[in-house]
Specification:
Layout lengths: L3 H13 L3 H16 L9 E4 L10 H9 L3 E8 L4 E7 L6 E3 L5 E3 L14 E4 L3 E3 L4 E2 L5 H9 L4 E5 L5 E2 L13 E3 L4 E3 L1
Parallel strand pairs: 1-2, 1-6, 6-9, 7-10, 9-11
Antiparallel strand pairs: 2-3, 4-5, 7-8, 11-12
Length: 190
């Protein structure tokens, strides 16, 4: 079995070769599936990653969620602690700035509050997933640490292209599975 590092590198390289036309088409299908979830009927607070490079594009989804009146939170990196914070955003154009690792993050002035302990849904990024909901992220462990601390009561959702769901990889004690994986072709409930 390949190591997580080799799997990460292989799949990120594969993902980098997908055309933006496909990314946009698949992202729309994934986000539409998310918006059709029954679970959205009973939630208020949704945290989502801010997409970069060839990840599933979350920008249109976040704009839609804000327009529909959800409280939307975005992560920011707390590098010295090796984890994430979360701040509410109301406007993607005004509330985000360049952050750590080239990711868009909430502006510093929005980060003055503790992470809400009642996040309803957390949408997490990843390079590759198993059908059991385990993920290989980008290697920093930021999301696993965040989910261990703040995700116990939240529905953990992954957005992933079908191609990046694989049968198996080494799972470690600190790895936290998601509850739902949404791809362009299916919804996998764990």
């Amino acid at each position: 079995m390949l190591t997580k590092d080799k799997l990460r590198k292989y799949h990120l390289d594969k993902r980098s070769k997908i055309t933006f036309e496909k990314i946009n088409k698949w992202s729309k299908k994934i986000c539409d599936k998310f918006l059709s979830l029954d679970e959205l009927n009973n939630v208020q607070k949704i945290m989502s990653y801010i997409s970069m490079r060839k990840e599933v594009n979350t920008y249109p989804l976040l704009e839609s969620l804000i327009e529909k009146g959800f409280k939307v939170y975005a992560p920011y990196t707390i590098k010295k602690e090796g984890t994430l914070g979360a701040a509410q955003i109301d406007d993607l154009d005004l509330d985000l700035q360049d952050g750590v690792f080239g990711v868009q993050e909430p502006k510093r002035e929005l980060r003055n509050k503790a992470v809400p302990d009642d996040l309803d849904i957390i949408i997490v990024p990843g390079a590759v997933y198993t059908k059991d909901g385990y993920r290989i992220g980008y290697g920093g462990g930021y999301y696993d640490k965040f989910l261990a601390e703040h995700g116990q009561n939240a529905l953990k959702v992954a957005f992933c292209y079908d191609y990046f769901i694989i049968d198996d990889f080494p799972v470690e004690d600190h790895d936290i599975a998601v509850d739902l994986i949404i791809t362009e072709n299916q919804i996998i409930k764990i």
